[in-house]
Design brief:
Elements: H1 10-30, E1 37-39, E2 46-48, H2 49-65, E3 70-73, E4 87-95, H3 97-101, E5 108-115, E6 118-126, E7 131-135, E8 140-142, E9 145-147, E10 159-162, H4 171-184, E11 187-188, H5 194-202, E12 208-214, H6 217-229, E13 233-235, E14 247-252, H7 257-269
Parallel strand pairs: 3-4, 10-11, 10-12
Antiparallel strand pairs: 1-2, 4-5, 5-6, 6-7, 7-8, 8-9, 12-14, 13-14
């Protein structure tokens, strides 16, 4: 394994937090200010200049300390895959842009540090909610206070979220995901931002989240690290530990993982 200069990764956690805060400040400055909206392809895949400006600010902050690390970013010409060797940063400047352009507060700037393909630190800043999540190698914090995944063991008391996005040619899978959640668990939430959703699993506000699609790393890596550092469990559809290139993502408080995983698997099987 390639070991960076700060073997404990404390330095990377601090930079992740500072970079996420810098990017979130840009997003917050433009929020509800009538910013122009562009489409990257598809009717719901939108982007704004705030996304691009936020990503540039995040990268600038990272480069001050780690000028040679690879950067994986959603916008512009940054690389789109996580390298299997060496140190890298995975950035989503505004996760939940559809919320952002609708003036909904559930959006975030997410920054994860990875080494040899595995996350070692992450931060997610929600500027419109005044929340900042940070995960180092041992714990997850919200606004400086340690948080943990929930302790619920009864599915009928649990709240679970379908997350990421099913395009118009997969709306049957979207419908099955919702059906599985409402038939198996106490209630369903959907926030329109995978990173916000994963942060809520990490702090116990949600008990799980599911998708069967292959997720983009910028939508997921930071939040996955937070859930794990908070004592939760994150796997693929086969129940194997989730990686940045896995198909499907199943995150839970750990106690309910078998039921959450069963719900995710049923999305493609039609509940059979």
């Amino acid at each position: 394994m390639t070991v960076p200069d700060d073997a404990s990764h404390d330095g990377r956690a601090a930079v992740a937090e500072a970079a996420a805060a810098a990017g979130a400040a840009v997003a917050g400055e433009h929020f509800r200010r009538g910013i122009d909206v562009e489409r990257k392809g598809g009717k719901t895949n939108v982007v704004t200049e705030a996304d691009r400006e936020s990503q540039r600010r995040v990268i600038e902050r990272i480069r001050e300390t780690y000028p040679d690390d690879a950067v994986v970013g959603e916008e512009e010409d940054e690389r789109k895959t996580v390298p299997e060797e060496g140190a890298a940063w995975v950035i989503d400047p505004i996760d939940g842009t559809n919320n952002y352009v609708r003036d909904i507060r559930a959006f975030a700037t997410a920054v994860a540090a990875v080494v040899d393909g595995e996350p070692v630190a992450a931060a997610t800043a929600l500027p419109a909610m005044d929340d900042v999540y940070l995960a180092d190698g041992s714990a997850t914090y919200r606004n400086g206070t340690e948080v943990t995944a929930s302790a619920r063991t009864d599915p009928e008391t649990a709240a679970v979220s379908p997350t990421v996005w099913w395009d118009f040619d997969a709306r049957d899978e979207y419908a099955r995901a919702c059906t599985e959640v409402v038939e198996r668990f106490g209630d369903m939430r959907r926030f329109g931002s995978a990173q916000v959703t994963l942060a809520m699993v990490a702090d116990g506000s949600l008990d799980g989240t599911i998708t069967n699609v292959r997720c983009n790393p910028w939508d997921t890596v930071a939040g996955v690290h937070m859930v794990r550092a908070a004592g939760g469990t994150v796997t693929d559809l086969d129940g194997e530990p989730w990686r940045h290139d896995s198909r499907g993502l199943v995150a839970s408080n750990g106690h309910l993982h078998d039921e959450v995983l069963a719900a995710a698997r049923a999305i493609e099987s039609g509940g059979d």
